[in-house]
């Protein structure tokens, strides 16, 4: 076997999260104010420089290593925030790694977005040249493939219309047509197939498969669409929280990924860190396995809070968020009612719903932990413990359609004066 | 199956982009052409005013400066040309510089989608936006020729040195807009400062007046403003005005400093553009 076309060793990427600034950008004003503060608080000197900014490190990728052979079609899977996009960005040289090394033995083209750089004022024809150049084609190459691109996109009639008058479907078609005609040795594709109509998606998948199998090109492909992964790829790399969790053939990879999302997500756990009070575990007690709850049946949520120094006046609450991201419940408990976490150590409490009457839908939890007196907000955890409420035995399909309601109370009918 | 030569191997590691940079710049020149072409096309396509604007603005400014400085304030100008022509020749590089500064300074933030999705040497973006300002400059230049014909002004042989001064002002505009463009990525409120810099610059630059009016003992200090040297140079080779050479060299020093500062700071912050933008 020859040298791998992509070789990645000990790759890590660190981001510094600045807790002080809301938007993530520092402003020139802040810098001037901070500098001025530093000058005037000279004796405090060193300390001021550190306390002024509350920074936290975040490793988007940690010690990743893998090899990809020429002609491999590799799917990169993982949950949101697992580091997939960061990995692609480093491979495409958009951002630099913090440590580690990558060897690429071939020309790379990356497609992290459909229609990057499309300008709304320019015509379809002009945008083909612009987008082609941005993706790394030279003018001669684009000219040579121009007719093919136009034919693939199916928008011949609108070639001289400014792109701003295109429908979103036409926009995607044109953009894809350009991208599909790239001829790099390594093609890197991020979740771009999520847009566009099904038929065109299939056409693109077909084209990509064509490219890789006919010319022995290497394709790296990030997607949540497992069907696309399984038809298109022969290898899968599974990322989890910035680390490589699996690297091997597609079938096993998809299996691993499915296990991963189903087992890990149902129960929320987190390791205690330092002296800060944290919610360390949230577990649902549902009627069925896999966090499926039957409407109208008992339901329980178990919480575990770790408070190494105790919390004098804890306030604990959780919200239930439905599939449309609407918060449908807010349940709160305060230390003034019952002592909660005053003692140092681990505390467990449960919230019991005798009859859960949430409308059939998919739900997640938001959890808040704070202190009433000091007003310290210890933690807000969003999107944890997904669960699904189902209805059994009530065959009234028109009634139980999603989005018909968020909640159905226990009610009694009185008809003609008789209960 | 195609075999690809091993020579194409590319290494990605922290700090590594430094070594590929200038080679990449050559490889991505096509992108530079096409982005310049896009900027020009969009600028003149969008509005009828687009092209007219680059005529109206210098003409109106020249008119107002002439009335204000020559008629109202009664400032003197002893050159061979008429006052309005003198103002216009100063306006030519100034307008180019201020346009380049405002457009180039916003170029990175304005192309954030490109920067976060595709790799290329980022320096291409501010560079291509300067090309647009250069087209405006060319339009104004034609206006100047028309004005010369109107005033029956014939320049002497020194005008052949003009390209040299044009290159100088391009370098200055390039350096400063690189600096401002990178500051803009880092500090989002910096863009509010740029219009102020441009406006302030106009007051300390001899656009509406001749720099002859500056007292001799202050002239060297005054020339530390790099645009003073540029404007004096334009007037020297187009209108045959006297040149204050020590000041010119002071300006050149300033220009080289800004060029170095711009490239150095841009290169230093460039690798984190995609993370910050």
Let me know the largest β-sheet of chain B: none
Query: What are the secondary-structure elements of chain B, in order, as H or E?
Result: EHHHHHHHHHHHH
Shape of chain B: globular
**Average pLDDT, all residues of chain A:** 81
Span between termini of chain B: 40 Å
Number of helices of chain A: 9
Largest interface between protein chains, with number of residues from each side: A-B, 52 and 44 residues
Instruction: Give the strand tally of chain B.
Output: 1
List the helices and strands and how they pair.
The complex is a heterodimer of chains A (419) and B (277).
Chain A (H helix, E strand, L loop, with lengths): L5 E13 L9 H13 L4 H7 L3 E14 L4 E6 L5 H8 L7 E6 L3 E4 L12 H11 L4 H15 L14 H13 L5 E4 L8 H18 L2 E5 L3 H7 L2 E6 L2 E7 H17 L1 E2 L8 E8 L6 E3 L4 E9 L6 E8 L5 E8 L10 E9 L8 E10 L5 E14 L29
Parallel strand pairs in A: 3-7, 3-8, 5-6, 6-7, 12-18
Antiparallel strand pairs in A: 1-2, 1-4, 8-9, 10-11, 11-13, 13-16, 14-15, 14-17, 17-18
Helix pairs in contact in A: 4-5, 4-6, 5-6, 6-7
Chain B lengths: L9 E3 L4 H11 L1 H18 L1 H25 L10 H28 L1 H6 L6 H27 L11 H25 L6 H11 L12 H7 L3 H14 L5 H26 L2 H4 L1
Helix pairs in contact in B: 2-3, 2-6, 3-4, 3-6, 4-6, 4-7, 4-8, 4-10, 7-10, 7-11, 10-11
Structural overview:
The complex is a heterodimer of chains A (419) and B (277). With 419 residues, chain A is α/β, with parallel strands linked by helices. Chain A has helices at 28-40, 45-51, 84-91, 124-134, 139-153, 168-180, 198-215, 226-232, 250-266; strands at 6-18, 55-68, 73-78, 99-104, 108-111, 186-189, 218-222, 235-240, 243-249, 268-269, 278-285, 292-294, 299-307, 314-321, 327-334, 345-353, 362-371, 377-390. The longest helix of chain A is centred in the middle third of the chain and has 18 residues, at 198-215. The radius of gyration of chain B is 21 Å and the shape is globular. Classes of the chains: A alpha/beta (419), B mainly alpha (277). At the A-B interface, helix 1, helix 3, strand 4 and helix 4 of A face strand 1, helix 2, helix 5 and helix 12 of B.
